[in-house]
């Protein structure tokens, strides 16, 4: 890419644009800089986000702000225990034309948008959660034997309450794997919380501006895919993922305490993620630092601890730190 002046110029322009987007979102969502960056990396990579945190930390506002700033058609679904799959993807209804002839007509559900906010996704039953699987993976849905394509781009930004809360259902492993990243949303720092109080309780509330269009976002995603990844970064990704699997790891902690490790989709996410992150940091190529920065949000929902780990108080964070140390010192 360095030998192609036009590509370099396009990449530099995209970096400036993403910096503008980051600032615009930061002006609405205070104290969540890491969360905003990881979400932008995911969207630029064409993936879906799972935001985990307690209610009231600005997850819903983040999604609404991104919809406006990125020029995307945004819809919101509040997941509840009685929500049915047809409530999300749509259904066929029996219709009658002017001549009295009856036929089935497909009525689109809220999934037919560009940015779908699945609010409190783990409040719904596993059957309803699974209704999103095909949409997230194939960008289309199947109803009564017919396929219906979703608008492009299509991103799901789901929020999830901590599993310890009452009335929650754990997401199936197959669906968790479809999420590009699991982003942990923490309480803001004192200064950020002060900003929140001053900006949201007065007579005027700041509204975000649109920076790009949906078509420009699609072009940006295409450009990001063309960024070359160096051999050292590729090797770091392979080492990180394969060391996280008990079958191929030479780390004692992983062999003893991990029930299953990350699959190839984790490697694919890291490859796409490091490309997008280097754009956000105004670089022309990814580095091992990008792999290290994205390791935790990309791996933690794709690994599971066994009973022995829980009994001994071993956390997934500690194991991921060991994996990061392995590639940092390689």
How large a portion of the residues is in β-strands, by DSSP E? 15-25%
Strand order, sheet with most strands: 2-5-8-1-9
* Largest sheet properties: 5 strands, parallel
What structural category arises from helix and sheet content? alpha/beta
Low-confidence stretches: none
Quaternary structure state of the chains depicted: single chain
Going by CATH, the architecture of the largest domain would be: 3-Layer(aba) Sandwich
Helix content: 40-55%
Predict the CATH topology of the largest domain.
Answer: Rossmann fold
- Which geometry do the CA atoms define? globular
**Number of DSSP helices?**
14
First-last Cα distance? 27 Å
Counting DSSP E segments of at least 2 residues, the number of strands comes to 11
Order of helices and strands: HHEHEHEEEHEEEHEHHHHEHHEHH
Number of domains: 2
Radius of gyration: 21 Å
Topology record:
Layout lengths: L4 H22 L6 H12 L4 E4 L6 H11 L4 E5 L6 H5 E7 L5 E7 L6 E5 L6 H13 L1 E4 L2 E4 L5 E6 L12 H6 L2 E4 L5 H11 L13 H12 L5 H13 L8 H6 E3 L3 H17 L7 H12 L4 E2 L1 H6 L3 H13 L2
Helix pairs in contact: 1-2, 2-11, 9-11, 9-12, 9-14, 11-12, 12-14
Quickly list its features.
globular; 330 residues; two-stranded antiparallel sheet; ATPase_AAA-3; 48% helix; 2 domains; alpha/beta; Rossmann fold; 15% strand
Give the gist of this structure:
GO terms for molecular function: ATP binding; ATP hydrolysis activity. The protein has helices at 5-26, 33-44, 59-69, 85-89, 126-138, 173-178, 190-200, 214-225, 231-243, 252-257, 264-280, 288-299, 307-312, 316-328, and strands spanning 49-52, 74-78, 90-96, 102-108, 115-119, 140-143, 146-149, 155-160, 181-184, 258-260, 304-305.
């Amino acid at each position: 890419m360095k030998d192609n002046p036009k590509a370099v110029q396009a990449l530099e322009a995209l970096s400036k644009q993403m910096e503008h987007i980051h600032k615009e979102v930061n002006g609405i969502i205070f104290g969540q800089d890491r969360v905003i960056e990881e979400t932008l990396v995911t969207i630029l990579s064409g993936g879906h986000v799972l935001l985990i945190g307690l209610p009231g930390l600005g997850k819903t506002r983040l999604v609404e702000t991104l919809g406006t700033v990125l020029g995307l058609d945004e819809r919101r679904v509040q997941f509840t225990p009685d929500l049915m799959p047809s409530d999300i993807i749509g259904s066929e209804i029996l219709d009658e034309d002017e001549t009295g002839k009856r036929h089935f007509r497909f009525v689109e559900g809220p999934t037919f948008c560009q940015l779908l906010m699945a609010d409190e996704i783990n409040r719904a039953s596993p059957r309803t959660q699974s209704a999103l699987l095909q949409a997230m993976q194939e960008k289309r849905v199947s109803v009564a034997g017919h396929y219906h394509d979703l608008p492009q781009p299509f991103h799901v930004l789901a929020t999830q309450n901590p599993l310890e809360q009452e009335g929650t259902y754990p997401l199936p492993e197959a669906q968790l794997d479809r999420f590009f990243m699991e982003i942990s949303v923490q309480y803001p720092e004192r200064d950020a919380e002060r900003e929140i109080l001053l900006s949201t309780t007065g007579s005027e509330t700041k509204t975000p501006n649109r920076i790009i269009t949906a078509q420009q976002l699609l072009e940006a995603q295409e450009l990001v895919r063309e960024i070359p990844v160096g051999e050292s970064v590729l090797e770091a990704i392979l080492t990180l993922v394969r060391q996280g699997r008990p079958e191929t790891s030479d780390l004692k902690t992983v062999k003893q305490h991990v029930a299953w490790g990350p699959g190839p989709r984790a490697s694919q996410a890291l490859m796409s993620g490091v490309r997008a992150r280097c754009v956000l940091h105004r670089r022309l190529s990814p580095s091992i630092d990008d792999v290290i920065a994205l390791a935790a949000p990309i791996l933690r929902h794709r690994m599971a601890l066994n009973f022995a780990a829980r009994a001994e108080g071993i956390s997934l964070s500690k194991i991921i730190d060991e994996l990061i140390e392995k590639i940092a010192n390689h």
